[in-house]
Each structure stands twice: as C-alpha cells, then as structure tokens.
Amino acid sequence: MTAPVTTAEFPWSDVWGQDAAVQTLRHAAQDPASLSHAWLITGPPGSGRSTLAYAFAAALIADDPTDEATMRQVLARTHPDLTALRTDKVIITIAEARTLVERSYFAPSAGRYRVLVVEDADRMVERTSNVLLKALEEPPERTVWVLCAPSEADLLPTIRSRVRALRLREPDAEDVAGLIARRTGADEVIAEQAARHAQRHIGMAQRLAGDESARRRRDDTLRAVLGVRGVSTAVEVAGRILQAATEDAKTLTAERDAAERASLLRTVGIAEGQAVPPALRAQISALEDEQKKRATRSLRDGIDRVLTDLQSLYRDVVMLQFGQGEALINRELRAELDQLAAAWTVERTIIVLDAIATTRESLERNVAPLLALESLLITVSSGRTP
Bridge partners of 118? Predict the structure, then answer.
C-alpha cells in the first residue's frame, strides 16, 4: 500500500494544509495518463494557490523527483521553461495575455514540460480571457497551463470548460494560528488573534502577527466605524480610512519602487545622482507608469482589506442577533457588538452588509474610493442606502 503523501517532501514543503491537493498534483506530475493540459487551482485568499502552482510546475519541469536543482530553479522563477504572470495592476492586459500565449507554443528547452502559471486569472476581463481560449483548448504537446483564482465562478464558462479544477480546503483558524506562531515566533495569544482577524488568510495573519502597527490600525478603523453617527462623521472617518490605506500602500511599494529604479539605472550605466540622458528618459517613464499602476492596485487591495474587516464586524453583529456569539471574529469588541446587535434590527445589519458588497463592486468599476467609502459609511450611520 502506498504511503500517504505529505507536504514535507520537496518541492511541496511550502504548501501547508493541502495534503489532498498535493497528492493529486504529485501523481499527475509523474503519470502522463492523469495529467491534464490545463488546471485551475481555486481557493480563498491565503489558502496557498500560488505556492501550490509553483510546486506543481517544479515537479512537472524536473526530470524526476530527485532533480532538486531544477526544482529550486523553478521555485526561484528563473527556469527557462516556466512562464509566470502575476499582475501588480488592477487587470491583466490583452498584451500580457498574448505574450503568454506566444510563449506557450515554445517547446521545453531543458525540462520535461513548459509550464505557464497565471496567478491572478480572475483579473482577466472577457476580451482578455478570449485570447487564452484557443491555447487552452489545443495546447502544444508538453505544455501545461496552471491558472489560479479564488473560485471557478471568477472565470468565464468557456475557460472553466477547458481546465481541470482543483479546489483547495480552507484551513482552520487554530491550524493557521499554530503555523503563524512557528513562522513568526509570536506568542500564542497574538497568533490566535491574528489568525482570527485575518479570517484564516495565512499571509494577512502573518503580517498582523508580526506588525503591531497593523494590528493597531485595524482596531482603530473598526472602532472609528462603530462611532459613526451621521453624515459629518461618516465623511471624516471615510477620509481617515482612505488616508491610512494610502499610507499603507506607500509603505508596501516604496522600497520596491526605489530598488527597481536603482536597478534600471545601474543596468543602463547611470551612477546614483547622475542626470538621466534624454535618450533614456522613456525607459524611466515607462517604469514609473508601471509603478503607478501597481500603487493603484496596492491601494485598492488595502481598501479591500478594510472592507473585509468591516464585513467581519457586521457578520459578528448578525451572529449575535441570532444568538450565536460563540464564534465571533472580533471578540475584543464584544461589548460594542452586543450594544449594536441590541440597537439594530437584523434587516438593518443586512443592509449594511449588502452596502459593503456594493462598495466592492463600485471600486471594481473605478468609482473614486473616497466617494465609495463615504456612501458606505452614510449607509452605516442611517441604515438606508444613500
């Protein structure tokens, strides 16, 4: 009888809590009869979709399970038979998709397969998705596509019909807390709180556990929203949320932006502090444009995290209104939540939860973030949609 596959084996060692998925993909990598030409790995944010995708790519490209050198090269994203697309922008462009399709027709140069990983497949609009259709339907021999998305519903039916879907399990909060404690050295109380507040999102839980300012910022935001009592405070708190999200986005991107600019200048032979010649300014401008797009994505991701936190807050209120207070996400705010649950009707809480979902949709349609947040908080304060 074959021993059960564990995630302790290379290259699967960074894949946590997804033993069944690992077993499926490991078997597929070694058995051509069970290998589909296109895969869709789905799961909630923080479930390890991308980590699993690259582990699968490493196993596919390597000559055999002992070819550790090749697998390490794939995991480092430097192997010539791996093409990876991870957008730092709001959407994947048609140009990026076309480049990916072109690469898919190259034969493997060194490994067993050519693998194309699309980390954010849900960020393709319909026209962009259509670019991939033929490549997914009739891929060249020894080419494998691996798409990642939160759910199958995030992709067009025509894309879903051409891939083999693999759904990842959502980890338990206790398991995430244990993992975060081991990774960060945080004490058990902070690790448990981080896992709970991040709603089992491993990456976010790790950040909360290791960054006291992030924990404080989350708490301040929730308390400020609970204190909204009218239009004036709604506008004020919306501005504070946007400012905090903007500063957070700058913190996350500033160091990377500076490193990219310095690297580009070194590549073209310009010393630090030296003026950029006119002939090279177009390259600098192109880099700056990309960084601005990434900053927009980072800001939107920051606002989305705030909306996720607010969703957890009013989810807790609904739970209390139905007498289910044992599994609250925001236990530290129990007194305030009890007061709100008693003061509001269930219908009003549902209106607010719907408004949070509407705010997400508005931001995806490029509505100004401040206006979207103000509209949301006015609904919070009044129980009616503006």
Answer: 85, 147
Are 317 and 337 in contact by the 8 Å Cβ rule? The answer is: yes
Q: Tally Cβ neighbours within 10 Å of residue 287.
A: 16
Encoding tokens for residue 275? 């003026």
Torsion of Cα atoms, 313 then 316 then 321 then 324, to 10°: -170
Domains in the chain: boundaries? 19-167, 173-226, 231-382
Residues 208 and 233: beta-carbon distance below 8 Å: no
Q: In the structure encoding, which two tokens stand for residue 173, read together?
A: 């909060």
Please tell me what DSSP assigns to residue 171.
Answer: P
234: how many CB neighbours lie within 10 A of its CB?
23
189-220 confidence digits (pLDDT tens): 999 999 999 988 888 888 899 889 889 999 99
Name the token pair of 267.
């590549």
Q: Which fold has domain 19-167?
A: Rossmann fold (3.40.50)
Say if residues 331 and 366 touch (Cβ distance below 8 Å): no
Tell me, yes or no, if the pTM score tops 0.85: no
Q: Which of 383, 382, 377 is nearest to 239 (CA)?
A: 377
